[in-house]
Amino acid sequence: MKQLFVDIRKDWDLYLALIPGIAFLILFKYTPMYGIVIAFKDFNIFQGMAASPWVGLKHFERLLTSPGFLQVFQNTLFISIYKIVFLFPLPIIVAIMMNELKNMIFKRSVQTIVYLPHFLSWVIVGGLFIDLLSVNGGLVNKMIVALGGEPVRFFLDSDVFRSLIITSAGWKEVGWSTIIYLAALTGIDPQLYEAAKIDGANKWKQTLHITLPGLIPIIVLMFILRLGSLLEAGTEQILVMYNPSVYNVADVIGTYVYRVGLGEQNYSFSTAVGLFESVIAFFLIITGNRLSRKYLQRGIW
Question: How many domains does the chain have?
Fold first, then answer.
């Protein structure tokens, strides 16, 4: 403790700069945690949080025994796993390909075009995809019909909707993740590539033995963080694009909480669902980090 005060007196200006960030965390991250108690009460908006009666684990029991929640949980896992399998490797591949571009003007132009969709809201992206894929007048269905096919009901067909979710998420977010990997590539020593060329290594071998190992730390970091959001399958995205016709394949935990919490005004149950999601996310991050440190000798901490 004495050493702490010595450090503060020595670098008081740096510690002073920490105050706004710490205040933000306390005010907007830790203080709202008090609301977790709603999950253990029959919350009544008129009685308030303190006066509402305690019910223990009643809402968690309802959660785990609800047949509807099992379907929602499965949908969440399927969509998240699909996104990891199909979308997680894409930014790495795109970053490696873009890193090989020698014309800087062309490279920067491609980079801008690729990550620009990230700055569009899901409302705009959803509207774009609805216009493109609509059965009535959508450009894609017009092309399908022109080629002799039948119009595809992208937003109403349960067999197609998950693919639409993955595709639209990839179009919007792959470019932004690519920037992260491009930044990591700048940290690889160019002399390693020069030495590899002298030894006769082609581009594939350079990528396999220099580029990918150099990206391993950031890949591990991004993967562990992605595990933490495994039960966040893209609530905002799905809310904008789904409808009752595809609830059986697209209703995820986030949309379920939104419908039950706000639609049915069942705040205690929706809080219990949210707390369940957070606990699972915490467990996944801890487990992923431990496995990474055990087998790759790398981790977030």
Answer: 1
